[in-house]
Give the backbone structure.
Amino acid sequence: MYRTKNCGELRIADVEKNVTLSGWVQRARKMGGMTFVDLRDRYGVTQLVFSEDSNADLCEKASKLGREYVIQVSGTVRERQSKNANIPTGDIEIAAETLNVLNESKTPPFTIDNNTDGGDELRMKYRYLDLRRECVRKNLELRHKMTMEVRRYLDAQGFIEVETPMLIASTPEGARDFVVPSRMNPGQFYALPQSPQLFKQLLMVSGFDRYFQIVKCFRDEDLRADRQPEFTQIDCEMSFVEQEDVITLFEGMAKHLFKTIRNVELTEKFPRITWHDAMKYYGSDKPDTRFDMKFVELMDIMKGHGFGVFDSATYIGGICAKGAASYTRKQLDALTDFVRRPQIGAKGMVYARVESDGNVKSSVDKFYTQETLQQMKNAFAAEPGDLILILSGDDAMKTRKQLCELRLEVAEQLGMRDKNKFSCLWVVDFPLFEYSEEEGRYMAMHHPFTSPKPEDVPLLDGSDIGKVRANAYDMVINGVEVGGGSIRIFDSSLQNKMFRLLGFTPEQAQQQFGWLLDAFKYGAPPHGGLAYGLDRWVSLFAGLDSIRDCIAFPKNNSGRDTMIDAPSKLEPSQLEELNIALDIKENKIIS
Amino acid sequence: MYRTKNCGELRIADVEKNVTLSGWVQRARKMGGMTFVDLRDRYGVTQLVFSEDSNADLCEKASKLGREYVIQVSGTVRERQSKNANIPTGDIEIAAETLNVLNESKTPPFTIDNNTDGGDELRMKYRYLDLRRECVRKNLELRHKMTMEVRRYLDAQGFIEVETPMLIASTPEGARDFVVPSRMNPGQFYALPQSPQLFKQLLMVSGFDRYFQIVKCFRDEDLRADRQPEFTQIDCEMSFVEQEDVITLFEGMAKHLFKTIRNVELTEKFPRITWHDAMKYYGSDKPDTRFDMKFVELMDIMKGHGFGVFDSATYIGGICAKGAASYTRKQLDALTDFVRRPQIGAKGMVYARVESDGNVKSSVDKFYTQETLQQMKNAFAAEPGDLILILSGDDAMKTRKQLCELRLEVAEQLGMRDKNKFSCLWVVDFPLFEYSEEEGRYMAMHHPFTSPKPEDVPLLDGSDIGKVRANAYDMVINGVEVGGGSIRIFDSSLQNKMFRLLGFTPEQAQQQFGWLLDAFKYGAPPHGGLAYGLDRWVSLFAGLDSIRDCIAFPKNNSGRDTMIDAPSKLEPSQLEELNIALDIKENKIIS
């Protein structure tokens, strides 16, 4: 037996006990006639003491232990002389009697410590050492606890977890698929699922009534900080439900997670905002509502006073940063630079301070009377000491998105985005379609199976289908879309109309979704569902900036796992067996 | 709201309540002035009654409902005149007051009933309808319950579920990988994991101490009845453990599953048998021990009496089928045909009946005295009425495997393989290596990281490494290997020796497993683990003959999903983006 106790469980009540511990040497230091070793495992750190007086050889051996050596030690628990209140085992130490080196260790390339000296790349290459750090391991322990609680909640609500297949068929609609050549079916490929969407709808047709799955999904997209080629969804679907049923049940799940994981009791119903209002007041379909700072539109007040930029704008709007009138010119210039960055793309920024006497002092004073500026102030309900920031542009939606970025930046600067504060809301009434300039046609905003609101169905026959609202909903927490879903179409004729509006010929619809459409002919129940992004939930609860830190073995921005060096080349015989050949365009090799 | 109750929950205590139900029409029948409809959902079946007297139109409408129509009905619960004791809702019915057809259904291609008329192929093509059958859905409900219990048990034991990546690197050793071309890394491929083996070992290096994962694994093998290209493992690993620790913990899990799922209390320790004995007595490393019928070797007794077949054999062995002396000549001929089938490959079978007077009457009487036959009888401890069946051959291992098939077949015929009886055991002391005729070298019987038994380590330097036993163990229930695992090598020099013995050059070992070997240099703890096959566990508990029936959407023997028609062809643009081209050999197109 390698141990009788772990390194985190011994307390003052255990004094005098004989114990055996195993673990990693956090550090070993010689002091006077003693060697102190901090022994670490998943459960904690325990101090070992070797004394020259009782066993000089052993004490000498202990002093030579390197960092991260794996050792087994037996000894007696005793009370410490100088206690360490910072760790749960800080009242005791082990007077070591035997020492067995189970394995040696090379010097790690970075310190195994919450405040490590290792950079991102190094830590990813040695992820197995990075995972030894408590702050990283804790994220994965949290992830485990969250999935346990999700399953407990959904199981108690009558949901059945069903595994849907990973090797499915590629569909051209949507994002890019990862594909898998089939050796047994030469020239044909499986695709890895972007989500189990169609299968969960089939399970509803099968009468499973309440389905869930915590499941890996795959998307071959160019990566960003919060994107991974493989990610995990909490995927759910229910039958015989309306939007309200789904929202109620999954709001309940969110509250269950807040209670069990974060010990936060959320008793109020989550606020709801329409997509239209979210765009109008926050310029985003996932507004961060930990703080207010809503947009105020200023076209009526600010247009037509001779300031060319505003006079030619189709949208003028701003935010009021409470108490930020003290921003220096330098800070304001930095904000202007911020909104001018190509990623954001604003042309400039107008600012106005409300002075202590109530007067408004702006960067465009020469165009506006104090009276107009006071009108503006009132539109914001701004008070002395507040700072007003205004953007304008010739595309309302684009300008709102720029203003959204500014709002988030200012809130960040003002400390309004506290990671331990949570603001949850539902965004509802999404448009069913969005117009794609690129494709020159309307596309499904969610997917082609999303149901329009019953009262908007007549609009499908009209000239402006952009106005049709969907029975779709997203849950947003602190500006992060943690999940979303919709009520699905279960009526074949409505589904066919949707495909027609999306530009599918009946043949194309049949070719791509034929098996689902066929299934729907055999008694599809009304149904709807939701998918939560597990990685995002965990990041949010762990207070992380990137989902990468809550994934055990993430990939980098090139989709590479630098630790195992994947992807990699195949043997020619493997390619031959799979009936494929490499066909790399020359410019790709160079680039 | 589509329903206030489901179709399985109403009881006599609910009489007089007004309820709304939704579900599928199992059948509708007109009798006298009434229409009776059996309404089905996941939770059960409830009888609806429409009466001409109270609403003739509604009654008429109900009588026209087709099978599998989706309807919503409101009405009053009342006590049935003629109760149905076979279903939990059999005491009541709903006097229907409204009827809303939510969706129509085409006539299903087979009856949605436990005793369906649909053949395998048809049911797979319409799997979403097959899943409506209670007997199929129950298997998936069982699967859900089992995974919940597995997680409860392991969580309570301090295990953390960690998701390991699905897009990893291909390793030539082992079975064939499914691969995924990387668009972002032209010419390179990911592989889908055959198991998370290396990652779970890394997690032990990371100090996770106790890891598990219920995880999809992939193997591109030619398929058999109990193989699927994707399958699910309960994958576990522990640090600072010896074989006994792992066996104890996972025997505990098996007992927990038997108790919570099958309500079977297993109090005894599971028996253990060495691999050597399992081969000797059962000709299999996964013996079915629901019945005894151990092999008895007969070389000493039966060789050298002039019966050429036995005289030239290097193995003669048999089984004693209790009370089967009444087998007719026809039955015995059928058994002989059975062992002669090419899949089994025996040349013939000798039989001997023990008659009521104790005399033995055999098919080779002319070569043996009654005295010799009595010796043989005694070797089996056979009694009057018993039947002895004997095989022989020039390869002991092959003949034992033939005898194993015979043993299972006879037991099947004698009704000894009751699916509601469970016999669990551990097979231990597997050989570390097995000689591959094909490769002309020793191969790892499990994988190259399996630890030899410490007492056998010196044998690694000897001439017969085939004798080295591994710290490896399989759990076998009713002849099914439900799981297996081993203690791993955590010492670099021992690992290097293993690679050398397996014919790897240091460069090859480094190329294929370098990242794991590197990780092991930074303080690897002693560790070991086990993986259970979830599909097999569920099949066993559900009493199924194939794992297919406990998988929601399985693939057929060509690796195809006939419902969604996967795999399928890609668009040329997809191939181009992935930097691959089809390269199908002509003979493959034809075949």
